[in-house]
Protein 1
Amino acid sequence: MLLTTATEVIEPHPNNLVTKSNLLIEANYKLGVVEQKIILCLASNISPADSDFKTYTLPIKEFTNLLGLKGTPKYTELRQITKELMQKVFEVRIDRKVIQVSWLSYVAYNETEGAIDIRFDPFLRPYLLELKKEFTSYKLENIIKLKSSYSIRIYELLKQYEKLQERTFQLTSLRKMLGAEEIYPAYGNFKQRVLVPAQKELKMKTDISFEIEEVKKGRKVEKIKFLIFSTRNHKSKQLDLFHENLEEFKLPNSFSETVKKLGLNVGIQLTDEMINSWEKHGQDTVIDLLEKMQYRRDIENPVGYIIKVLNTPGANEITSENGDIVAHLVSEFRQSKEHLPDWLVKRKSIEEIKTWMTIDQEQANQKFEDIKNELYEILQIEELNNSERSDEEMEEEKRILLKRIHSL
C-alpha cells in the first residue's frame, strides 16, 4: 500500500526551532548522537500550526551535511542508520502503563531523487504537535555541533529549567534518563566521561552552560545539582509564535512537576490540589519521600502511604533515615538476581551501611538491627514477584508480609 499522507521537503536550517513536550524530554531512552540529530532535525521542521505529522523528505546531501558524515554518502550506510533507529524505542509511563514506542513509523529511500522520506510514529503527536504548555523550545544550532549523545540529552534537560537557573537529579534518575544505567558504574568515571565532557561542549557550542554541585550521603554522591547559566542574551522571533498567549505559557513549577513525575514513576497520577495540600510539610520532605518510594515494591496504596507518613509526627524523620538505607540496600540486592540467605544479606548489608554512612563496625551493626525486619520482608516480596507460584498463593503471602511490615 502506498503512503498517501502529506509530504514536505524539509530544510534542516540551524535557526529552525525544536519544540518538545517536557514529558518527552524526561523519558528514559538511549540514542546515538547521529540518531538524536535525525529526530531533532525532523522535529525542527514541525510548524506550530501542524495538527498531524507529515512525511518529511530530506535530501541526502543535506542529510549528510547536517549529521557531519564524511565522504560521499552511501545508501547502504544511511539505510543502516535509519534501520537501527526504527528499532529503537523509548518508554513513557501513563497512569499505571509503561508504554514502549518507536520513534519512526516509516522510512523510504528515493535513490533516483537522492532523498529520504521519514515519518514520526503517530503516538508522538501529543509530545510534538500543538503544544500549549509544559514544553521546551530551542534552536537546532545548539545541538547540531555537539559530538556526544549525552551532551544533547543534558542540554535538553537543563534547557527545560533555564529560567529557574538550577535543576537537581537523583544520580540514579539521571543515569536512567541518559540511558547510562550500565555505563561507568563508578561515579568518578561517570563524571569524567559523561558530565565533564558535556559541561565543556555546552559552554563552547550552545546558549547555556552549567556548574555541578554534588549532594552526598556520607561519602557517596546521591544527587547532582546543576547550576544553569545563559551564555547568549538573545531572543528568537520564532519563539514568539509559541508564547503569544502569555497567560497560557507559564514557567514550570519545579516542585509540582517533580512530584507529578515521581508519582507517575510509582504508578499514581497526582493532582495539583493534592500536591498543594502536601506542600505545607515542606517541598524537600515531599520530594525526598517520593524519591525513596521509587525503590519500594511493598506499598499497595501509595497515596495513603504518603498521607500517613506526612501526617504522623516523627514518621518522616524515620523514613528519611532508615527508609533511605532500606531503599538503597534493596536497590543493591536487586542487581543480584539470585536468592541470598539471610546471613549473607546481613553481612553484605552491614558492609554497605558502614561504607555508605562512614560509621564504625558497632554503629553499622546497630543500624542493621534497626532496619533488618523491613529489609528482609521487602526482599521476600521481591522474591515472590519473581517466583513461579500461582497468583493466589503469591497474593496471600504478600498480604501477610505487608501486614507485618505496616505493623513495624
Protein 2
Amino acid sequence: MTPGHGLLIAAPASGTGKTTVTLGLLRALSRRGTVRGAKSGPDYIDPRFHEAACGQPCVNLDAWAMQPDRIRKLAQGLGNDFLVVEGAMGLFDGAMPDGKGSAADVAEILGIPVVLVIDGSGMGQSAAAIAEGFARHRPSVTVAGVILNKVASPRHEVMLRRHFPDHLPVLGALPRRADLAHPSRHLGLVQASERPDLDQWLDDVADLVEAHVDLDALPSNAATRTKLHPARALPYARIAVAQDEAFAFAYPHMLEDWKTAGSTIHTFSPLKNEAVPACDFVFLPGGYPELHAERLASNSNFMNSLRNASQTADMYGECGGYMILGETLTDAEGTVHKMAGLLALQTSFAERKLHLGYRNLNAGDGPMAGHFKGHEFHYATTLKAQGAPLFHATDAEGTVLAPMGLRQGRVCGSFAHVIDRLDTPLN
C-alpha cells in the first residue's frame, strides 16, 4: 500500500454486496497497515461499520452536496493513509436529472481508480460484458479491476472469469456465503453498535477476502491535495449534541467543522436519561427514536432539561431529533408517546411513507439561518405541523417543495439532514 493512495469500490447496482466487500477489504488491509474508509453520498450507518473494520474515522464524500475542494480535504484526513471509498447505488447513479453526486463523480474528483463488484449470481460470460460497458462509459473514470461476488462454485468462477480482457483484471472471486449476510432495517443496515458479534463477523469477512482476493494487485492513485476548506462555523461557544443509538445520525465532518471554528462539543445520551449539558446550542441528530419512543417519553430528566434548555439556548433537531421536539410520536404499533412539546408537531409510524431525496435548503433567520445542501430519508407521517416554517426547499431538480420544518422561538427542526453549508445563496 502506497501512502496517500486510494480506490473506490463500486458496483453496477445496489444489492451486489459491495458493503460487505468493502468491510472485508478494510479489515484485511488494516492487518497490513493503516487504512481509512469513506462513504460516497449521504449515509450514517455504513461509516460506523467502516470505523469498526479498520479502527480509523470514516467520512462522507458527497459530490452533490459538497464542493470538490471540500471532498478532497475530507479525503486527505489527518495523514496519507490508504483510502477505500465505498460507492452508493450503481457507479454512475446520482440525483435527477443528470446523475450528479454519483460515486463516479467522487472517483473523478479524487483521481482514484474504481474496483467494480459484480454479483455473479445467475450469470456467466455476461459479467465481462457488464464490466467492459462500465469501463467505457465515462473516459474520465478509470475502472481498473473487478471483484466477482456470490460465486456459486469453482466451475462457476471459471465461467465468469473467461472473457475478461487484460485491461480489466479479475482481482478476486468471493464464494457465496449466506452465513455472512448482515441484517438490515428500513434505513439500511442494523447499526454497528447493535451487533455484539461485530468484531468476529468482520474478521470472518476479512478472512474470506484474504483467501479469495489478490490484495497486492489492488490499484491505487494518489488523491489530489488541496487547501483547507473554510470551516462551516456556528456562532456558539458550547454545543450539546445528543449521541446514542436513538440519535446516531450526526455527520462527523459537521461536528469537526464546529470544533475547528472554536466550539466545544459536549455529548449526552437521552436514552440514558442524561440532562442536556450547559450550552449555547443544542443539536438533536436523527436516528431511530421511534424504536425507543416509550423509553424516551419516560426519561423525565432528559425531557425536562430539554425544555429548560430551550429557554436559554438555541436548539435544532434533524429528522428523529425533530420528532422529539414535537408534541407526540406514534410508534409502529399505534401507541402515542408524549414528546417535549417544544414544536406544534405530531408524527407517526403507524402508517409509513417513504420520503427520500436531496434537498436545497434556505433559512432567512434564526439558529439555522443560511443556505444548505442536505437530504431527506425517513418513513414518518406528519399528522400535525403548525407554526412558522424553518426552510424553503427545492429538490435536486430545482422543483419547489413545500416549506420544511418548524421554528418556534429558539427551537427549530425539520426532516432534512444538513450535509453542508454554502457560502453563497442557492438559486
Protein 3
Amino acid sequence: MEIPIRKLLLGFPLEKAVNPGSMANPEALDFFLELAKTLAAKTQTS
C-alpha cells in the first residue's frame, strides 16, 4: 500500500489513489486522509 498512501499524501483524491475494496482494512485510509489534510493545511500557512 506504499504507493497509494504516497498518492494520498501528495493530494490525489481517494478514488484516484486506491481502491478501498482491495484493502483488508480500508478504514485505515481515514488516518492517511486526515494526515494529508493536516499536511496540506500546514503547507498553506507556511
